[in-house]
Amino acid sequence: MPIQSINPANGVLLRNFTPLTGEALLEKIALAESAFARTAEVPLAHRALCMNKLAHLLDCETADLAALITSEMGKPIAQSRAEVAKCAAACRYYAGNAARILAPEPVDAPPLDAVVRWDPLGVILAVMPWNFPFWQVFRFLAPALMAGNVGLLKHASNVPQCALAIEALVRRAGFPRGSFQTLLIEASQVEMVLADERVAAVTVTGSESAGRAIAAQAGWLIKKSVLELGGSDPFIVMPSASLDTAVAAAVQARSVNSGQSCIAAKRFLIADPIYDEFESRFVAAMESMKVGDPTREDTQIGPLATTAQLDEIEAQVVAAIHTGARLLTGGERMIGKGNYYAPTVLAGLPRTAPVYREEVFGPVAMLFRFTDIDEAIAIANDTPFGLAASVWTASSDEQRRFSSALQCGAVFFNAQVASDPRLPFGGVKRSGYGRELSAAGMREFLNAKTVVTAEPEPTP
């Protein structure tokens, strides 16, 4: 089966690619292994030079790269440009901070002289999703290459041109040949790559089913794995919050990337005294969102990335209404070409409904009413996922309570959840394990090697 690049805004086939044969795949793994051996000889300062050059290339070619993202997965063009800029920022962060993060750490353990070294593991397989086709890759790529690892990328099958463009950028930035390679392979071929003894570890961002399968194999092979999977993030609004600010942020948090983001707010928990006003304003704002051609500057919501994604969202909304949710707006495909779904708001979904336990990956918001902070925390934690949460409150006491009680990898107060190269990113429960970004993310694929030196015995 060919790997196809299809424009989700109009269904037009952009390009076909033939998956790598088993023999060609083994050649790429061999090249990665030899690249890792050469990387050990490359000074960190030279890697930083290449990483800064990579950031410069991203800056200079933002317009073309953003157009590629928009054509392959439908992201509104302004958001595509922002994604490329964020990748450049990550490159600069790791170029500037790798020496600090990788520095050997002395340990006070007299009478021994002890130090912890941070050594690269080797060839890392990255299995990445389509929703942020550049950013998801770069948040692995930048720390991995700066640490001295090399990467093999199995990108989502609907964004092959983005995958190839990233490989070309890395090579043009001056990294040794084979340091980062795109593998145009089918999902069934991932098992072969991970099983190869030359592959040291794997990182997966994507669906829960993909994470389960790859993590199970990695565990059997005793190879390090990091998983960043789904999310059903709560957006909690307390009575003390500024309603104007909270509503505006809520709409943005649900509609970013047309709702196709693991850290997009999906469940909106609103305090009873302000619920009715919030619902009215939120529904009106969702209805006013401009849906359409993602190449237009004023488009806020573009098409969903695939027809399968469109079908799944439609089925989830139908199931939610069938189990008791009230449809406040939207709830249908939009007429015409492309994978468009109307911005949708549901209220009152029973927490016993099956769809409540699922991740909704599109412009669909679910509203819930709560009476006090205890109920807000109970609803927020009542999910199999635990990626992040956004809480809107002016009370420092409430902030302390939410900080400790919410079961997730990050809590943002009076701000929309976002990833940042300076901050650890990842979740708990079925959102996965391990961390990306910051020093914590870089060290996921490093060996914390303890080196102990004792004083030699005096020569008689």
Short recap of the structure:
The chain is of the alpha/beta class and 460 residues long.
* Number of helices, counting only DSSP H or I runs of 4 residues or more: 14
Provide the helix percentage: 40-55%
CATH architecture descriptor name of the largest domain: 3-Layer(aba) Sandwich
Helix-strand makeup class: alpha/beta
| Mean pLDDT metric | 97
Assembly classification: single chain
Morphology = globular
CATH superfamily of the largest domain: Aldehyde Dehydrogenase, Chain A, domain 1
Strand count, sense and barrel status of the largest sheet are: 7 strands, mixed
Compute the CA-based radius of gyration. 23 Å
What top-tier CATH class of the largest domain fits best? Answer: Alpha Beta
Q: What is the strand content? A: 15-25%
Report how far apart the termini are.
74 Å
Walk me through what this model shows.
- The chain is an alpha/beta fold and 460 residues long.
- The protein contains 14 helices and 20 strands.
- The strands form 5 sheets. Strands 12-13-14-11-10-16-17 form a 7-stranded mixed beta sheet, with helices on both faces.
Key attributes of the depicted protein:
Aldehyde Dehydrogenase, Chain A, domain 1; alpha/beta; globular; 14 helices; single chain
